[in-house]
Amino acid sequence: MSAPKTPRTEVRGDGLPRLLAVLGVSNAVMFALYLGVGGLLVQTQIAEIDPEHKVSNVALVAGVSAVFATVFNPIGGTLSDRTRSRWGRRNPWILGGALAALATMLLMSQVSTIPMILLGWSLAQAMMNLYQAALTAIVPDRVPEERRGTASAVIAVATSIGIMVGTQVAAFFVASVSLGYLVFGSAVVLGALLVVSTTHDPRPGEYEVAERPKVSLVTAVRDFLSALGHRDFMWVFVGRALIILGYFMVLLFALFIFQDYIGLPKEEAPQAVATVTIVSTLAAMITAVVCGPLSDRLNRRKLFVTVAGLVTAASMLLPLLWPTMTSMLVYAVIHGAAFGAYGAVDMAIVTLVLPSKGDAARDMGILNIANAGPQMIAPFIAGSIVTASGGYGALWVAAIVISLFGAVAVLPVTSVR
Q1: According to the model, what pLDDT value does residue 220 have?
Q2: Can you tell me whether residue 198 is helix, strand or coil?
Q3: Which of 31-35, 75-79, 186-190, 293-297 has the highest mean pLDDT?
Q4: Residue of higher predicted confidence among 161 and 221
Q5: DSSP letters of 260-326?
Q6: Which residues span the membrane (predicted)?
Q7: What is the dihedral of CA 159, 165, 168, 169, to 10 degrees?
């Protein structure tokens, strides 16, 4: 089966900074919702409903909702690859996904039981991943290869800003969770409107598409997952999955780590999460701005990713050996800097190992399983470790080991230096 030819739609010159700025804003509001809602608002709501079983309930909600994210991201990518409309390929899914996500936030604002929180957040993850899959494909669609490191840095900085702002806004709304949900959902819709109104999504006729014959379900599934048969793509997938797994094993329980491991009073823990997030985010932004363009200039990607992954793992020794608020702040600086460097260059590697540029959104969606999949299993793994060990020390050890393996997984990649 012949693949679509590469769209002739790369943005160069004066149009590229505007495109990157819009992508920055739209990615920032997306991650603000992911971390603000999933990290604080949902956990606060769960803890208020059933404080005795908060760890297991958070693990359940986070894990099941991540299944929806894992499934809907590549599905959304495939759908946007195949969309042929007068509004473009990506725009309908970016705007439609954002509006549907706002509807799920409205649902979340009205629920008061654990099962309904589970349903609402799972639907929200599904709709947000339709938005994310189409949005992510814009980089391989329209950014020249020699500027992918810069684009990756912009998105990494935007992600950091989104996380920082999201946790701060969420901390402000912990006393009014319902209103907080609506604020985050509305912000995503505004980000989507910015994308579709200020950038040009190529229409049919502006790129060449090969005819796609009808195939059986088995063949469709095989083609859908065919990217993982490409060696370099597979190793990038594994490396990202392990780094993200180690990250989310800790992040998803940050609120409870401050309460039960560091020993902060319940009323102080949300602000501690927000403060540490700011510190980590600022450090990540600095290294992302430096490392993304530098990787373009040196044409070296793997070195940045490997070193950043190793430092990420090493930073976790601090709270493991010295469980205080001070150590968490130092950890936040080191871990944030390393994770910022990793994120800035990893996205560039991802776009350079895609097996089929004509199926960019599909393959980016498959690779985004390496983001969503770990979020699916991280809460169950972390919850089991905390429950079995009776504390969070073992959780830090597990996260360190997993991150170390993630750091070296990219080394076998041969098509990228």
Answers
A1: 55
A2: helix
A3: 186-190
A4: 161
A5: IIS---TTTHHHHHHHHHHHHHHHHHHHHHHHHHHHHHHT--HHHHHHHHHHHHHHTHHHHH--SHH
A6: 20-42, 54-72, 93-111, 117-139, 151-173, 179-196, 233-258, 270-291, 303-322, 328-354, 366-388, 394-414
A7: -120
- pTM score: 0.71
Are the C-beta atoms of residues 320 and 375 closer than 8 Å to each other?
A: no
Domains and CATH numbers, the chain: 15-201+227-408 (1.20.1250.20)
Whether residue 309 contacts residue 407, with contact meaning beta carbons closer than 8 Å, is answered with yes
More confident residue, 207 or 369: 369
Single-letter code of the amino acid located at 162 = G
- Give tens-digit pLDDT for 225-268: 666 778 888 898 899 899 989 988 888 788 889 988 998 888 78
- The greatest distance separating any two alpha carbons of the chain, rounded to the nearest whole angstrom, comes to 62
Length of the chain measured in residues: 417
Residue whose entry in the numeric block shows the structure tokens 């950014």: 143
Q: Is 194 helix (H, G, I), strand (E, B) or coil?
A: helix
* Cβ neighbourhood burial of 208 (10 Å; 0-12, 13-18, 19+): exposed
